[in-house]
């Protein structure tokens, strides 16, 4: 008896599915076309209003090429002869432009580098509190609930552990949402970009970033070369073996060469191929896409509600 009931129930479901075809759905929607149209228009107007309220975001980007490193293959052979002396001195004679570039990319994305960058150029208000940008006078407007530019004070209300002035962690998080670094694995070219409300600020930040990362890598290499030179000089004073002294002199010469190149080369780790510009066209938002999504969302939701109410009444 139970088996018969289950079979009957299955048959009824199949019949119900057969009855609900595309034609019926179309007729149901067509009968409520006025309701659906009004709802869709409301969603579309809401999307248009939302899209118009969103400020333009501009992206400035620069294309970079890794600076050529010196060929250290001969010195690398000397390093083998020395039996690890160079490695003890902290000298990496086998480093290539690629590895140096990868290191620079990781440094430029690091918390410490970004924090120092924000602090050095005093860009925290432009980063956190900027609300809009005026093309007429090329000035930023700030959110009055966050920052008072007249007194240069932060007035935002936050709960501990946060403070009115954004912390380094907050600033880093916001900055990384606007900042991007990409390396082409085939060509080795590096693209650095910044998005901001102001195209001129975006361009300026990109230029500052490239200047700072070149200086940072230069200072690191000079400091390492000086430490290595000091160590090698001490080894020269302690050894009397002519062959080892010859290799040590070569290593000292290489460190001196590194320091010299660092002092004369401004574009130390990255060479600018295509410099950053202040873009005339926004990169986002795509207002047409937002309106289209609002239109489709309004139509789909209103159609689903109409169909659901229709079958709910019948059931």
Proper CATH architecture of the largest domain = 2-Layer Sandwich
What would CATH call the class of the largest domain?
Alpha Beta
Domains, number:
2
Gyration radius from CA atoms, angstroms = 32 Å
Distance between the termini: 26 Å
Q: Spell the H/E element sequence.
A: HHHEHHHHHEEEEHEEHHEH
Number of beta strands: 8
Number of H/I helices: 12
Low-pLDDT runs: 70-83, 93-97
Helicity level: 55-70%
Could you tell me the CATH topology label of the largest domain: Bacterial polysaccharide co-polymerase-like
Mean pLDDT: 83
Name the shape in a single word. Answer: elongated
- Report the structural category: alpha+beta
List keywords for this structure.
two-stranded antiparallel sheet; 2 domains; single chain; alpha+beta; GNVR; Bacterial polysaccharide co-polymerase-like; 315 residues
Structure in words:
This protein folds into two domains: 79 residues, no CATH class; 227 residues, 2-Layer Sandwich (Bacterial polysaccharide co-polymerase-like). Strand 2 and strand 3 form a beta hairpin. The chain is of the alpha+beta class and 315 residues long. The strands form three sheets. A four-stranded antiparallel beta sheet has the order 6-7-1-8. Helix 3 runs antiparallel to helix 12, helix 7 packs across helix 9 and helix 10 runs antiparallel to helix 11. It has twelve helices and eight strands.
């Amino acid at each position: 008896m139970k088996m018969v009931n289950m079979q009957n129930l299955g048959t009824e479901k199949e019949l119900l599915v057969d009855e609900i075809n595309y034609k019926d759905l179309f007729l149901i929607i067509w009968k409520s076309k006025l309701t659906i149209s009004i709802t869709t228009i409301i969603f579309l107007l809401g999307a248009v209003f939302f899209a118009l309220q969103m400020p333009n975001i501009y992206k400035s980007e620069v294309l970079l090429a890794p600076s050529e490193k010196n060929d250290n293959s001969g010195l690398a052979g000397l390093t083998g002869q020395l039996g690890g002396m160079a490695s003890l001195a902290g000298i990496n004679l086998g480093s290539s432009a690629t590895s140096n570039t990868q290191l620079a990319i990781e440094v430029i994305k690091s918390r410490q580098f970004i924090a120092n960058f924000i602090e050095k150029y005093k860009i925290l208000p432009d980063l956190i509190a900027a609300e809009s940008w005026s093309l007429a006078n090329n000035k930023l407007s700030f959110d009055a609930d966050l920052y008072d530019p007249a007194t240069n004070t932060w007035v935002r209300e936050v709960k501990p552990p946060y403070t009115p002035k954004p912390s380094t962690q907050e600033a880093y998080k916001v900055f990384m949402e606007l900042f991007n670094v990409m390396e082409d694995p085939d060509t080795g070219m590096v693209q650095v970009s910044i998005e901001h409300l102001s195209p001129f600020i975006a361009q300026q930040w990109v230029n500052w970033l490239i200047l700072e990362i070149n200086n940072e890598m230069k200072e690191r290499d000079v400091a390492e070369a000086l430490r290595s030179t000091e160590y090698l000089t001490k080894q020269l004073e302690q050894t009397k073996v002519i062959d080892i002294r010859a290799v040590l002199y070569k290593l000292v010469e290489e460190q001196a060469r590194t320091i010299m190149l660092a002092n004369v080369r401004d574009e130390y780790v990255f060479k600018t191929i295509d410099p950053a510009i202040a873009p005339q066209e926004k990169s986002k938002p795509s207002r047409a896409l937002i309106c289209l999504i609002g239109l489709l969302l309004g139509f789909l939701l209103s159609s689903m509600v109409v169909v659901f109410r229709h079958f709910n009444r019948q059931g």
